[in-house]
Amino acid sequence: MAKHHIEATVNGDAVEFLCETEDTLLDVLRDTLQLTGSKEGCASGDCGACSVTLDGRLVCSCLVLGCEVAGRKIETIEGLAKGETLHPLQKQFLEHAALQCGICTPGFLVAGKALLEKTLDPTETEVRYWLAGNLCRCTGYDKIVSAVMDTAAAMRKG
Amino acid sequence: MGETNGHSQANGQHYVGTRQIRPDGADKVTGRARFGADYNLAGQLIGRVLRSPHPHARIVSIDTSKAEALPGVKAVITRQDFADQPSEFIPAGEMMMNYKDVVRNVMAREKALYEGHAVAAVAATSTAIARRALKLIDVKYEVLPHVIDVVEAMRPDAPLLHDDLFTVGVEPKPEKPSNIAKRVEIKQGDVAAGFKKADLIIEREFKTAPVHQGYIEPHAALATVSEDGSTELWTTTQGHFIVRAHCARLLGLDIGKVRVTATEIGGGFGGKTVVYLEPLAIALSKKAKRPVKMVMSREEVFKASGPTSGATVRVKMGATKDGKFVAAFAELKYQAGAFQGSPVQPGTMCAYAPYDIENVHVIGYDVVSNRPKVAAYRAPGAPISEYAVESVVDEIAKKLGLDPIELRMMNAAHEGTKAAYGPKFGPIGLEETLNSIKKTEHWNTPLRKWQGRGVASGFWFNIGGETSVSLTVNEDGTISLMAGTPDIGGLRASLASVAADELGVSYDKVRPIIGDTGSLGFNFLTGGSRSAFSGSMAIVEAAKQIKAELCARACKLWEAKPDQVEWKDGAVRPLGALAEKVKPMTIADFAKVSGKTGGPIGGVGRINAQGAGPSFGTHLVDLEVDPETGRTTILRYTVAQDAGRALHPAYVEGQFQGGAVQGIGWALNEEYVYGTDGKLQNAGFLDYRMPVASDVPMIDAILVEVGNPKHPYGVRGVGETPIVPPLGAIANAMENATGIRFTELPMSPPKVLKALKEKGLNKV
Q1: Can you tell me the distance from the alpha carbon of B79 to that of B237, in angstroms, rounded to the nearest whole number?
Q2: Which of A44, A97, A133 is nearest residue B298 as measured by Cβ atoms?
Q3: For B229-251, how does the pLDDT look when each residue is reduced to its tens digit (9 = 90+)?
Q4: B211 touches chain A (CB under 8 A)
Q5: CATH code of A9's domain
């Protein structure tokens, strides 16, 4: 069967690509569009390292097919910083040392940003449950949760 | 934080001991950092591995002809592509490797020894074609009986994995082969006499399940081999020099022809200290004459890499009625997986290391069974044996009506204690960690019904080892720092802080990179909690050379004698009368005139780091058991550990917190589940359940700093000790919550519920 021709928007840029039916959005992002910031940790939606937003909704890109995203808007870790300015969450992750190896970091940042778009006043429990779809094996989550809470507090103040 | 160290900058700034932003941070929060699977080369092929579906089978024949004929397939490799290796332990870096086993683990030869054992590999123009090709490889197996459990594997009638494996360490030498590779033993004093003095003797048997390191990044390798044999490899590893040694040996290459670059590494915890895909990718590339990229799936990671041993441990301890430990015995049986080499030796040595006990006897067995070969996992072997000991220590406290912290304090190893495994300890911080825990508000907070509090201590040796770094002063006075141990959790930040303090430059003027194997002398791997310890020591050496060179250059420029200049506070300073004539010169001043004063400026530190100070820790945990479901919730957690000196306190805390949560997973949920068919039933993150953010509370970290006198900054390794105490602390808390002494890990909800039911306690 011929490949699918798909047009979509990634981080505000119009993109078009060809993909096989079985190619996931993660395959397309990493292998076709060379956006390797989204990581594959499990390919089964259990680790969250491939988190992106699809029309504003947080998804595991390993559970979305490439041919499903026609005409849709995708935001990845590569679109988080604006120009030379890091997103406040990225800054807080650095200041809190909320990453050790860094492989899960893109997924946590995309997921954390999605939470902050819903609420700037999450409780610690809300942060922990929102991020429960993202695995981190290095940090024990302490500094990640603190970084998200502190970002929310700073953004509340404006 | 700790005292100042005498190294400071012209402006008096110190970076060591402060929380600087990591130099590789921006790349890691923007998705720019390149991990193992993020590397690609033009024209690359995709490599995939065919794995054994059987836990134990003789490989009668492998027919690859159909796969080779498939369009798009460029190379197929099997056991025939690797020369056999003699059975002898030879050094690879500081590890002793038996390459007869290594070559068989990367590619099965006579037999497949576990489900997931590599049997063949292909390289093709696409993943889809590679997958199809694997299905066309015809392997004829003669399925053999298998054995999974360690105790069953030790029986004389157990299915035999290796017919040439004779137990080492027993007299007389056994006449028949068995699955027991080795018996190890440590002895101090007279245990029988010691037990005679005891008022209380407690003996218990414990079991732990194998657990995986659980790094989020699967193994990945990209290799390209030229016609002249020059080989380049990019791989996610804790030690690219070790990968080079292994690949050169397995493929008959000169070490100098193999250049290995360590990509950013997405977690390792010991599991990325060995080779799996690397030699296969090189062999495929050599055959196909094109670059070959290989990445494991998560299922492959579970079935064919890691884990650490499951074990059976018997502990017997004797104490006087006052609580003094007078005798301690233990017998450890550790699973090695399909090839010998479980961490039973360190398990044996660590078991009683936290305590000052006159009479100690520990025996360990290294046992093979039809499971993936174990790999190191954070303080390899120690969490298992120390879990069992800490459980019995807690029971002694209970029986004697003593406070568990007081009991530990009374028996704690301290400066001058001779450890049962050999050395006499220098200054160590176990007592300080116990004291800090005792002083916490946490220790003194009341608990409710179904809640329990547990405490446990832990020990890990730490190592130093061969280390090579370079410092280069650039034309503008900035510093290029090159280290050869992969940065797995903030190493660059720690080393840059040390270099900045040593040379008196700003932290942000130091750019640390991890050099490839062609850029530096040999480096042992990132492991043994050695990289910050040894790396900072090597940087001090390299900086010393730079400072001496600059003093010499200043003497030439100022026409002065060596005793008229000194390096102090970030500059070469003129002394005495000379100080009236010339101004001090900083690194940046020398950089401007380097061409005129002797050429490029730099230093290399090439050391075999000695004097790694052991790190002790004590953990405190509160938990609550749900009697209806058997589920355990961790309510509160405090870690106190001796860091010697924390180069970067935030990353040291991170080690404490991460290790504690890995330990929580080990204690409560994680385990390899096998069916009677010998196949792993939970090879995915859904069924192998590691802790997520909602499973754990904040982890309070107390940095204890009892300086290590053998290190210029007082540093001790910190990475491994944090995973040692959680198992015991949580088991002790479970006992306090339920009244039940659990002796089997994990204490998963079904197991806890069953135990509660047996006691009639499962009613709310």
Answers
A1: 24
A2: A44
A3: 999 999 999 999 999 999 999 99
A4: no
A5: 3.10.20.30
